[in-house]
Amino acid sequence: MKIKTVCYSAIVLLVAASFAVVGEGVARVNTPPGVGVGLVIDGSASRIPGKLAFFEGDPIPIVLTLENVERGDLITSRGFNGKLFYRYLTFTDPAGKGILADDLESFTPTEVHVPPPMVLPVGLELLQVEAVEVLPGMEPGPPWSLSIGIPNAHAYYTLYRNVLYPAGQYSVRAVIPMRTYYQIDYMNEQEAYSLLTSVAFQETVSSDPVYFSIIADADGDGFYYPEGLDGQPPDCDDQNLNVHPGATEIPGNGIDDDCNPATVDPSPPRGTVALHAIKYLVGQGDHPATAQEPLANVPVKIMNMSPGSCVAQNGFKWSNYQAIWGNCPAEGSGSTDASGDLMVILPPGEYAILGYTDPNPAVNNDEVYISGTVVLAADATEHVNVQAIINPAGKFVPAKATRRTGSELWIIEPEYVEWTGTAEFYPFVFRSVGDWSVSTSITPPEGFVANADALEADVNSTLTAVQFVVTDVGSEWKDTKVIHKVKHRGKTERIKTKIGVKNNQGKKVNPPKKKR
Known about the structure:
Elements lengths: L34 E7 L11 E3 L6 E7 L5 E4 L11 E4 L5 E2 L18 E5 L2 E11 L9 E6 L17 E14 L4 E3 L2 E5 L3 E8 L3 E6 L55 E12 L7 E5 L4 E6 L5 H5 L6 H7 L4 E4 L5 E6 L2 E9 L10 E9 L4 E10 L5 E10 L2 E7 L1 E4 L3 E11 L1 E9 L4 E3 L3 E7 L2 E10 L7 E9 L2 E13 L13
Parallel strand pairs: 2-14, 15-22, 25-32
Antiparallel strand pairs: 1-3, 3-9, 4-8, 4-10, 5-6, 5-10, 7-8, 8-12, 10-13, 10-14, 11-12, 15-16, 15-19, 17-18, 17-20, 20-21, 22-23, 23-24, 24-26, 26-30, 27-29, 27-31, 28-30, 31-32
């Protein structure tokens, strides 16, 4: 049914045929309304002929094409041709995380630009309708089509938000919400409306993904990743300037120095780090309910921490974790699986372990680094736990553990407490095999007040916790001293630790010293 004809030439921003397209070409997925969505990237600006490969700052031009592939007229929401189609792209970064347009990050495409229904009199009834228009087809003849050019995707998308290094393979596809109707049910002052009961389709139409690369030489060795520049083969480790195609292969170091797997490199002695990542969820109260869950999908780096190493020079403590993660090379890496486990094979040595997690990607500077250390011997397997605690306020902090044997007791406590208010939780989690008694006392710095002098817990092959609430009344920011008095099999031991403080309240003014 053709009620009116709409001219689309005014909104065609760029025609796909004018581009030198490299890659898979136009990819379409046809969905019930018969609309095909094609997406291509202009390859004329690519740094590597024949491949979609760009430097970090290069413009990434995209053409989005919509076609009525069933040719006949298509009845859809009025103003469909005015949608901001370029905001309906979804990019995926090398880590596999999706990236939406910067101003739509809190929405999904189906939640925006969907016209609300209206209520109009139809005969003697008030019915819900939607203002519609006809996208005219031609029978016989070419289908209706619309091409929209996006000169540079960077104008709407921050492609490197979730990755430490921008180089790697990306993908992009279009997902566009759409309603179509079987018929026009109502005309009012030359405007067309369809009843909601005559909706033919109400979902999204999508393109196939198109893949492209961001190329870089992060280590400055003259070789690029993930694609080689100027006919060179790609770098196989862009974080190590001594590893690249043509480098001298060092036998026995366990590294593919020349990026050629066929080069003989006898394996040196190896050991295995069996890593398990855990989070402890602590509830309210002095003796809160506590649950243990695996920490899945956590990127992990294992780094040399022998004397003179990058880690040793920085100092392996919580206040330096971010700098170590960004600047120190990894000897081994990976991500934990759904059970929080990761196995890494390494040469014998002394290693620092860092895991990176971002509890809320929408919040800046809330990243958390969970840590551990291990001394690995040849042909040995060392089991290492890295852990975090989530307190009743939902704060995610890295935790350290102290182990005692004869059976076994683990004391898990925060490496630091992040202060954003005037009172914060100080949780302590105990996990045991056998019967243990623990009395924990804390001594905050002057000006901080705890709600209890000491808290006691009996741990008998269970997961138990105690929790203090500390209030700040204005003082210097120093470590909190902790003493655990542990009793087991008639013996008592005092374990002294410290908990750091991360001040996110802003600059504090110390109280004046009293005159003597």
